[in-house]
C-alpha cells in the first residue's frame, strides 16, 4: 500500500488530493472538486478524470510519482507539449493513447514563459487536449533533473568559450530518455511525438531521417537519438506538412489548433541568452577585441557574449565589415576579422557514426544549409573534409551527417 498526495495553488485558491494506492489501483482517496470518485479506479483511469482545474492539477501531482499501468500491446504514450503538433500525434494514436507532458525548468526572471513547451500553461493545454478526448494524461515534474542535465552544461559551455545548442541535448538525449522510461511505466509499447521527422531503414538498420516537410524538419535537433531506441518511437507527422497538421486539428475541434509555435531554448522564457547567462553567474569581465595580429580594436564585457560569424554589436568602428572569428575564454579575448577568414574546410567533431560512410551531407548549424563532405572516422567521433568552405563554424554546435536523407552520424563540433 502506497500513500501519495499532491496540491496546486493559484493566488489564494488551493486544492489538495490524497490517494492510497495498491499496485495500479486507487483504494481510497481524499479529493474534492473532481467529476468522478477515484476509489476503485486504476491509475490509468484516474489520469483521465476531469473536474475543477486546481483539483485536476493536484490529482496530476499526486499521480505522477506513483503512476504505473499494466502492459498493453496497443497502448501508445504520446509526448504532449500543449501545441498543435503533439495534439495531432495524439489524435492519430487513439483509442488507447496516454498523454505525458514534461514540466521542465524555466528561468523565473524570463519575460515570457507562456510560449515555452514546458510551461505551466503548456501543461494545462496538453492535459485539456487529452481530457477533451477522454484520454488519460500524466505530468512529470523534471525541473531539477533538466536544470542539471541541460541548463548547467549550456551555461558551462558558454563559460568555456563554446556556442552550445541546448535543444540538441534536450531533444536527442534527456527528453527521450525520460519519455521512454515513462512509456515503460505506462505499459506502452510505443512512444509517439509531434516532431517533424521520419524513421527509415537505411544500410540495414533503423535510422532517423528528414521529414517530408523540409521547412519544419527537426531531424537536426533529434540527431543524437540512439538508433537502438527507434523501434519503440513513432513520428506520426513525418509525412505531414504544418498546414495539414493544423487543418486536421481544426477538423477535430481541438482548442490548440491555432496555438502559437513554442520557443527554441525554452528555459530562457523568452529572454536573450546573454542576459540569462549574466543572471546564471557568468562573469561580465572586460576584455579586448583584437584582430588576427593581436592589435586591440576595442573592448567587450565578456567573451561569452559573442559567437563566430557575429557582425553586429561589436562596438568597434572599422573601414571594412568585421566578424567574430573566435573567442578565447582563457584570456577573455574576442578575435575579429573579415568574412573570408571565417572559412573552414575541415571540422572535427566528437560523437558517433551510425553507419560507415565515406561521403555525407554535413549540417553544422540548425539554420545553415548542409555541405557535401568526406567523412573520416576518428577515435572519438569523425573529421569532415568539406567540399566547399563553411562559415561561422562554432565549437559546441551539433554536426549532423545525412546520407539520402537519413542521419548517419551526429556529434559536437570541437574547438
Question: Mind explaining what this structure looks like?
Answer:
- This protein has helices spanning about 45, 55-65, 85-90, 120-130, 145-160, 165-185, 220, 240-250, 275-280; strands at about 1-10, 15-20, 25-30, 70-80, 95-105, 135-140, 190, 200, 205-210, 235, 285-290, 295-300, 325-330, 335, 345-355, 360-365, 370-380, 380-390, 400-405, 405-415.
- The mean pLDDT is about 95.
- Helix 3 (about 85-90) packs across helix 8 (about 240-250) and helix 5 (about 145-160) packs antiparallel against helix 6 (about 165-185).
- It is α+β, with helices and mostly antiparallel strands and about 425 residues long.
- It folds into two domains: about 1-270, Rossmann fold, CATH 3.40.50.620; about 285-340, SH3 type barrels.
- It is about 25% helix and about 30% strand.
- It contains nine helices and 20 strands.
Described by strand count, sense and barrel closure, the largest sheet is: 6 strands, antiparallel, barrel
Assign the structural class, choosing from mainly alpha, mainly beta, alpha/beta, alpha+beta, or little secondary structure.
Answer: alpha+beta
**What share of the residues does DSSP label as strand, in percent?**
25-35%
Helical segment tally?
A: 9
Domains (count): 2
Average pLDDT metric: 94
Unreliable spans are none
According to DSSP, the number of beta strands is 20
Round the Cα radius of gyration to an integer and report it: 24 Å
N- to C-terminal distance:
54 Å
Q: Please state how the strands of the largest beta sheet are arranged side by side.
A: 15-18-17-16-19-20
The CATH class of the largest domain is identified as: Alpha Beta
CATH architecture of the largest domain: 3-Layer(aba) Sandwich
- What name does the CATH topology of the largest domain carry? Rossmann fold
Within CATH, the superfamily of the largest domain carries the name HUPs
* Shape assignment: globular
How helical, in percent, are the residues? 10-25%
List the secondary-structure elements in sequence, H or E.
Answer: EEEHHEHEHEHHEEEHEHHEEEEEEEEEE
